[in-house]
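In response to reviewer comment 3 from the previous cycle, which asked for concrete evidence that the modeling workflow produces usable outputs, we include below a single protein chain processed end to end. The sequence was submitted unchanged, and the resulting structure tokens are shown without manual editing.
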Amino acid sequence: LGVICGYADQVRMIRRRLKGFKSDSFNRREDEKFMVDTVDNFQGDERDIIILSLTATRNLNKSFMKEFNRINVAISRARCLLIIVGNGREFSAVKTDLDGRHEFVYRRIVDQAKFHHGYFTEKDVMGE
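The workflow returned the following structure tokens.
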């Protein structure tokens, strides 16, 4: 299991909240223990399950999380299951530069999740 964050401050906050939490890896390999880190530090690593925590900033269009290489690393670290937590509406409006074209990469991710019945709102998760 791994948690990927866009920002180091978010990593530190999650690590503080999880202090004392013990988790074994699913396959018992020592090098695949529970990990919380930034996208950049997760490059070259993978886990069976990844939780990608997308934090909205004041101006998402200036966020480095709109860079395609970071998006690619973040969503390709999961072997079996990728869970993305974030504001789908906000991220769907972000344009990503992709080979000189401005594309709505996050919108495509959200649309695919909805198509495959894997998109859940806060109400779906928390109830009302």
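The helical segments are 8-17, 39-42, 68-75, 88-92, 105-115, 122-126. We consider this sufficient to address the reviewer's concern, and the full set will be provided in the supplementary archive.
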